[in-house]
Amino acid sequence: MHKKRLVSLIAVASVTALILAGCSSGSDSASDSGVPKVDMMKELGAGEGQVNLVAWAGYVENGSTDPNVDWVTGFEKETGCKVNVKNGATSDDMVALMKTGEYDVVSASGDASLRLIYGGDVAPVNTDLIPNYADIFENLKMQQWNSVDGVAYGIPHGRGANLLAYRTDIVKPAPTSWSSVFDVNSPYKGKITAYDSPIYIADAALYLMETQPELGITYPYALDQAQFDAAVEVLKAQKPLIGEYWGDYLKHVASLKSGGTVLGTTWQVNINLAKGEGTKVEGIKPTGGSTGWSDTWMVSSKAKNPNCAYMWMNHIASPAANAGVAEWFGEAPSNAKSCDLTADKNHCATFHAADDAYWADVYYWNTATEACLDGRTDVKCVPYAEWVKAWSSLRNS
Amino acid sequence: MLHSLPNFFHKNQRLRLIALLTTPVLWLVVAYLGALAMLLVTAFFTIDSFTGNVIQQFNLGNFHDMLTDAAYKNVVLRTLGIAISVTFICSVLAIPMAFYMAKIARPRSQKILVALVLTPLWASYLVKIYAWRTMLEPGNGVLDWLLGPIGINSPGFGGPAIIIGLSYLWLPYMILPIYAGLERLPNNLLDASGDLGAHNFYTFRKVILPLIFPSLVAGSMFTFSLSLGDYITAQIIGGKLQMLGNVVYQNFSINLPFAATIAMVPVSIMALYLYLVRRTGALASM
């Protein structure tokens, strides 16, 4: 009996100690409204020998996917920084990965960047240490999603629109608008796909902007309760049409190839991969516009390899690397000089790199906040945390 | 000095016990109970709605959200349904197989059969589920190709696919304990039952089943708990269907406390299940 008590005493003591340790280690709460103070790098030192990246699939290619697609090996040789990459499937994944503090750099979309800045997970970027920053398109710099109070928090990477994918040999006539994925009488019922993330609610809101103007939605990331509920209703009605929601891009490509998915939202890079495997598939930006992304390379506030991180950010913003990514992923580059270096000389024209009119109806991913992002002050908007709950509820109902 | 160590421990029995038990107890307490305790504690935290940082403040909001949203009640019931179906299918398939292996097959083929039952466990879980994805693929999958001509279609991706996949994955975990239980069952009991005029089915119901019940329970604990916590199978062949594990997976990156709250559900169900099993007395005779 004595020993038994001893053992249970040890057990209780250890568990208590563990809980206390867990509590004290993470008590730097950031519930105040301001941006946590994080120091900016002053000068560049020697490389640390490696850099750990969190990136979208297709952003960091070292020739292992396609031997001709490689803008990493040269960088590794030149700087001695070995590149380790972890692909994030969604912005939420990326935010979670960056919170671990194990990664140095992230390619954050607009629905992640502000969360990272206000969460104190990323540091301001000293753009003087990034020579290639000078060549970035001016209208991508110092935007709402990559700077706060005139302080840059990252290097613009590139932008693109979420596309409507369809199998050209199956879906006839070719779709022209997003209504094709929301039509409850669609002949492709069960073979439609949607992106598996709360941010997809914005796609429904965008569809409502076109089809139900009386709701008064002007910006799909600024939804008051009534508008938000209407968007969720659209998604509920869409659910029976969906075969699979996609988060894993490889599974998505496989599904397009097998014909399990014939219609739905996608990225250009998936279209390229599927086409590369002989699938008859096309991706369009439908009438009425699309959601999209404008990504930013950001450096972690807890970066263990800050020098290599800066070297990487400078490298990926260089005309050659930027052209490589833009062409492989299928997006508009951020470096104005990239346009001369793409293999397809029309790439910048095709992706409207400098065509501001094209981007007018592309709504870059953004993080919804209670203060409406469209400037309305008479109502409260539904914050992103509620989007997450609604999406989780929708997916599990 | 080293050679005196055995002597030392022989004289100090208590120290010997401590030296022997420290590592496993630490492992059990820190890795198992510690993780469970953290889970329980985290379930009562909340997050900053904007940055997603965990705020360590006692709060029942997660439980309120989980209990009031019908979606989560559905996902709990769905997961339970799947786990029960998988356990049922596994038992129905495992009992005759184990019976053949233990009582009918010759000793040599017995060993081969045991090895065959074990072989699927050598392959990776993911490989097997992706194989099922190819087989179940509606329209051009292996099942449609094979059974289409006789009018049977693949169920496609969804609940039935998950049940098929999980039953396939966990079947060996059900066969082996039942086989072990049947091996211990003396043949003369079956003969006696037959001599006294009992039909095969009656013998099965009145003699075999009660005696292998503890084995069945042991197997069901594997199949039931493994199904309850699975999320990868649902992700790959579940179509748009989600199980409890998927809810945890979906939320852990965005809302860790809520994921912890959801994770408490299978833990509680398993605790309740073990309690019920204990009441039947099956654990004592295992």
UniProtKB/TrEMBL annotation, chain A:
Gene3D superfamilies found in the cross-reference section: Periplasmic binding protein-like II (3.40.190.10)
Keywords for the protein's UniProt record, in alphabetical order: Signal
Pfam families, per the entry: SBP_bac_8
Cross-referenced InterPro entries: SBP (IPR006059)
Coiled-coil region: none
Name by which UniProt lists this protein: Unannotated protein
From TrEMBL, chain B:
Record Gene3D superfamilies: MetI-like (1.10.3720.10)
SUPFAM superfamilies, per the entry: MetI-like
GO biological process: transmembrane transport
Chief location of this protein within or outside the cell: membrane
Keyword Transmembrane: yes
Cell compartments where the protein resides: Cell membrane
Membrane topology, from the record: Multi-pass membrane protein
Cellular-component GO terms for this entry: plasma membrane
Domain ABC transmembrane type-1: 76-277
Pfam families tied to this protein: BPD_transp_1
TM region(s), chain numbering: 21-47, 75-100, 112-132, 152-171, 207-232, 252-276
Keywords: Cell membrane, Membrane, Transmembrane, Transmembrane helix, Transport
Family: Belongs to the binding-protein-dependent transport system permease family. CysTW subfamily.
PANTHER family for this protein: INNER MEMBRANE ABC TRANSPORTER PERMEASE PROTEIN YDCU-RELATED, INNER MEMBRANE ABC TRANSPORTER PERMEASE PROTEIN YDCU-RELATED-RELATED
The name this protein goes by in its record: Unannotated protein
Native organism taxonomy: unclassified sequences, metagenomes, ecological metagenomes
